[in-house]
Amino acid sequence: MTTLVRLIVMLGMFVVIPLGVALIDGGGVARVRRVWPVAAAVGAVALWLPRGPLATGCAAVYAAATLALAAQAPRRLARTRSLAPSEIAVLTALATPAIAGTALVAERAGYRLFGFDLDILALTVPHFHFAGFAAALIAGLVCRGSGGGRAGRPAALSVPVGTMLVLAGYFIDDWAELAGALVLTAGMWLVGLLTWRDLRAAGPDRTTRALLGCSAVVVVATMLLALSWALGEATGLPHPSLAWMAATHGLGNALGFALCAILAQRRLRTAPPRRPALAPTLKERLA
């Protein structure tokens, strides 16, 4: 696991998931969030230790927290009884960090889970922090913020569907992974379009609009890189290396898309409601 990948994972552990979970309602989610910093700290230690029992034990602590978060998905579904597209995206966000946590335990143990190379397991960890948790959560929030509609509902659905297809592609073949990348890319581009067209235009202040605009623009480029890599893997055409993908697609998704989008969503949630413009007084009309 390279230094860059470790740092990206730590950004997910310490910043993206805690800030994102704070945007999800529910008492059980709040309890997980309270213990998350401790689990993230132990999980971060696992990233820097050499593979072995100690690193595996630390990774298992973090994996337990991700499983506790995933357990909130069926509880939330039982409470809301909603399968609206935006809600499906939020349920996906709750569940996917557990995939990252499981992959982290296997990679730190040096165990080829399901026969996957350790390098693939190492990259699965950031993938399901960002393409799993962050992308699905943001898709659901953008769908709600834009009022749903013809673009909002497909955007909210295609991100979790694409993420799961990419995961399935790991077990099937490169062509199945390419199909998942196509669906995920289409969904992320729809999220970017809605963010730029609807949310950014109605942003309450310049900083929020800048964060929304950055996330909308960056996701177009990063998903194009992901698509080129999946196409190259399936067809044998020249494509970026995994190291290059981590430095471009991975870093761009983490900082430019996920972090900016979640910070913007937090600002949107805490922004005071806009007051309608007051009608001019008689004196102002006569002036």
Automatic annotation (TrEMBL):
Keyword Transmembrane attached: yes
Keywords, sorted A to Z: Membrane, Transmembrane, Transmembrane helix
Bilayer-crossing regions: 6-24, 54-71, 83-106, 126-143, 155-172, 178-196, 208-230, 242-264
InterPro entries: YndJ-like
Alphabetized Pfam families for the sequence: YndJ
Protein known as: YndJ-like protein
Organism: Streptomyces natalensis ATCC 27448
